[in-house]
Specification:
36% of the residues lie in helices and 19% in strands. By secondary structure, it is of the alpha/beta class.
Length: 440
């Protein structure tokens, strides 16, 4: 199986540096935290290096470099539409990340819009929506019940515009939400649907048209393009009618003195929400990453499927380990698994995995505090934190096997080093690992 997996041709990521161990020596870094931020694709790094000599301001420059940068920036809107299977008329607004995109959408919905979402959403999707017309519903234990819960919540909404916000994949468990079924229910109630694609987009193709959603948001740093760009893609009418997200250059057609104040005419298109000099390099990197993934979905899926099977089989054999799941029974998922380890604090385990085994995992509540608290309780565990392992293009079979072996050893014999809480987090005490040269 290992040889077959290693023959799968997937887009290459930049090589991770070897990391030092508290016990001496070093190991290749096992990055099992792709759901937080994915490494950079090698093709993206090369493309950015090639573009940088041509980098300049966009839209209003007569110089050749400015014209090149403008073409790069505007071309990427079409790349993003194709990547998510959007309609040709859909707007593409470049943002910093998914959080920024969802806050922009929240600022753009018409007044008195009723918003329905599960309370287990990532904080980026949960927190921007405030007010009496927001309905945060507990996520039921089955996919069918989740669809019914949205149906019931929409039926209770007052007359007027309605919006359902739903994640494509849980950033806690990796399970896919029934987006198409929820969208069908939303249509019956005259509601729009916003898809949080941050955790789905790096793993599966998204089609706005097939899912019948109205908006999708995503982040470059989760799509192997860690240069600070994201996007909101979807219907443009609410965006065109809304006040600019930020006030500044680029969002304006005309500014003039108007008595003691200012008269401002804003741009009529998506530019009204892109004030200031945009992150052209980040936008270009995001577009390149999307093109690379779109050309490799079969290989990406095969790579992840084999690793996920290996991971879940290995974790099931670790004594005292309880996996967290949103839904009863088997549900399709991306390569993300969260769990608790009986008798061991998640932060301590994560510190040991890093310091003694060269493994990076995530511990805590993953910006989904309600979800993690509820799932830990459901699993029979205590506390409000868990461990999360997330796979991606930088993951190998050796990384998965190293993790499973490390967890079994921790359960059997504990740590080989001493640890304490430093600045609120578990860490080796003392910590002899040298910092990289650029930080010294």
């Amino acid at each position: 199986m290992t040889l077959a997996l290693e023959r799968v041709t997937t887009p290459a990521v930049t090589a991770a540096a070897a990391v030092p161990l508290v016990t001496g020596g070093e190991l290749d870094y096992a990055n099992l935290d792709h759901a937080a931020s994915a490494p950079c694709l090698e093709a993206v790094r090369r493309a950015v290096d090639e573009f940088l000599p041509h980098y300049a301001s966009v839209h209003r420059g007569a110089g050749f470099a400015s014209q090149v940068s403008t073409k790069v920036y505007e071309r990427t809107r079409d790349v993003l539409r194709r990547f998510v299977g959007a309609r040709s008329s859909d707007a593409v607004v470049f943002t910093r990340n998914t959080t920024d995109a969802l806050n922009l959408l929240a600022r753009s919905v018409p007044r008195h819009t009723s918003v329905v979402l599960f309370d287990t959403e990532h904080h980026a999707a949960l927190l921007p929506w405030r007010g009496p017309n927001v309905r945060r519903i507990p996520l039921p234990n089955t996919r069918l019940a989740a669809v019914s819960a949205v149906d019931s919540a929409l039926a209770e909404c007052p007359e007027g515009p309605r919006l359902v916000v739903v994640a494509g994949a849980s950033n806690v468990t990796g399970e896919l939400l029934p987006v198409a079924e929820i969208a069908a229910v939303a249509r019956r109630h005259g509601a729009r649907v916003a898809l949080d694609g941050a955790q789905l987009a790096p793993h599966r193709p998204i089609s706005v048209r097939e899912l019948d959603v109205d908006y999708v948001v995503l982040s470059g740093h989760k799509l192997y393009a860690p240069f600070g760009a994201g996007a909101l893609i979807g219907r443009g009418d609410w965006l065109r009618a809304a006040d600019p997200y930020l006030a500044g250059g680029g969002a304006t057609k005309l500014v003039r003195r108007d008595g003691d104040g200012l008269g401002v005419a804003w741009q009529s298109g998506v530019e009204r929400h892109e004030a200031g000099s945009p992150n052209t390099v980040g936008v270009y990197a995001l577009g390149v990453a999307c093109e690379q993934l779109a050309a490799s979905w079969d290989a990406v899926a095969a790579h992840e499927r084999a690793l996920l099977e290996r991971l879940t089989r290995g974790l099931a054999a670790v004594p005292g380990l309880a996996e967290l799941r949103l839904f009863d029974g088997a549900a399709e998922r991306v390569g993300t698994v969260s769990f608790v380890l009986d008798g061991f604090e998640p932060g301590w385990v994560a510190a040991v995995l890093s310091a003694e085994y060269g493994i990076g995992v995530r511990d805590g509540a993953f910006c989904a505090h309600i979800a993690v608290r509820r799932l830990v309780e459901r699993s029979g565990g205590e506390g409000q934190q868990a461990l999360r392992v997330s796979l991606g293009l930088g993951t190998t079979t050796e990384h998965v096997d190293r993790l499973v072996t490390a967890l079994r050893q921790i359960v059997a014999r504990g740590a080989r080093w001493t640890y304490g809480v430093v600045d609120g987090r578990w860490a080796p005490c003392p910590d002899p690992r040298p910092l990289p040269d650029f930080l010294r």
